[in-house]
Design goal:
The protein is of the alpha/beta class. The strands form three sheets. Strands 2-8-7-6-5-3-4 form a seven-stranded mixed beta sheet, with helices on both faces. A three-stranded antiparallel beta sheet has the order 9-10-12, covered by helices on one side. Helix 6 links the parallel strand 5 and strand 6.
Length: 366
């Protein structure tokens, strides 16, 4: 199998697996005060400190969660009680639906046809009653990178009391996030297990618990602390950032070849030439049946996607692409890579893509 859906979930890395196993060898509830509890708490706090060090924040700013969705919801729920929430039209459903759930007052920031936030529209939306602006660092479907520095400057100038948040789940291993932002991360995008993530939020960031319980994690995230998950997340994040330069040189070269194969097969890259994450290639193909396209590639052992796994199952036109003005006559295809991607994987895509596109287009005409 040629796995090119790393943006959906990354394989468990050996580094994260070993960190999980080492932590699992210690028995104890990290909230208990006896010796076993203290041993478990020590592992958890060491993981928190490592995450903080990698991201350039203070350890108390790291709130461990069950994943990116919970982190996004926490980021929205507190500021939503204080004013209007703005989020971009290309946000993951974890942000969009959290705003609809928690924020009675919210507005959507449009994007341009190249998938980048419309700064003029944001400027118009920014008023004194805005309590939060949430814009993802890079889109999970297209890989297009957002101008976070410009957004932060604009928010500080027009709505200085507003908080700024970014869903950095796809981007944290590739980009340095400006210190002005609260940010969400997810372990399984980095090689850690599913079920662990974090919200990075300053001590004075307005937080509101999503559920009652024991009051763990700054009294906003109740539940028995996931010591093993925290250790694995810290190990995976640290390795991903440490190995960034070497990984990205390889993946950018691979991505350029896959992008060229997409264009050669009659597609176009979403967003054109705007900056994008090196590990995601997202292309649009006219008149192709999406299910037939994925099936054609799957038949030759290539695993990829037409969009976010969180909305997979029955194909529906992407809200991200609709926000960019792409209609449903063009079928998206996302290849996403990681540490385990090889030259042979890329060569397989170069051989298989054009025939798969022709088959998918023939399925529409049939």
């Amino acid at each position: 199998m040629i796995y090119l859906d790393w943006a959906a979930t990354a394989p468990l890395s050996q580094t994260a697996q070993q960190a999980w196993l080492d932590a699992a060898a210690v028995t104890g509830n990290a909230s208990a005060t006896h010796a076993a509890g203290r041993a478990a708490r020590s592992i958890l706090e060491d993981a928190r400190e490592k995450i903080a060090e990698v991201l350039g924040v203070d350890p108390p700013e790291v709130i461990l969660t069950s994943g990116g969705t919970e982190a996004d919801n926490l980021a929205i729920a507190g500021p939503a009680t204080r004013g209007r929430v703005l989020f971009s039209a290309i946000e993951h459903p974890a942000i969009r639906e959290a705003a609809e759930l928690h924020a009675p007052q919210h507005d959507v920031i449009p994007v341009t046809e190249d998938g980048v936030i419309d700064l003029e529209a944001l400027d118009t939306l920014l008023t004194d009653d805005v309590s939060l602006v949430s814009v993802m660092a890079a889109n999970n479907e297209t890989g297009i990178i957002q101008p976070l520095d410009q957004i932060a400057d604009l928010v500080r100038a027009r709505a200085p009391r507003a908080r700024i948040h970014t869903d950095a789940i796809q981007a944290v291993a590739s980009l340095d996030i400006p210190r002005a932002y609260a940010l969400s991360i997810s372990g399984h995008k980095l090689g850690a297990p599913v079920g662990v993530g974090a919200l990075i939020a300053a001590r004075d960031y307005p937080l509101r618990p999503l559920e009652g319980g024991g009051g763990q994690e700054r009294r906003v995230r109740s539940g028995t602390l996931n010591v093993q998950g925290a250790a694995a997340l810290a190990a995976a994040l640290s390795a991903a950032v440490d190995e960034r330069s070497e990984r990205e040189r390889k993946l950018r070269a691979f991505g350029e070849r896959i992008a060229a194969a997409c264009v050669s097969a009659g597609g176009r890259l979403s967003g054109g030439t705007v900056p994008r994450l090196p590990h995601i290639v997202h292309a649009l193909f006219p008149g192709a049946d999406p299910e037939a396209l994925l099936l054609g590639l799957d038949m030759v052992g290539i695993v990829c996607s037409t969009g976010s796994a969180c909305s997979a199952g029955v194909y529906r036109h992407s809200k991200v692409l609709a926000a960019m003005g792409v209609d449903d006559s063009e079928t998206p295809l996302r290849f996403s890579m990681g540490d385990g991607t090889t030259e042979a994987d890329v060569e397989a895509v170069e051989r298989a893509l054009a025939p798969a596109i022709k088959m998918a287009q023939a399925a529409v005409r049939a």
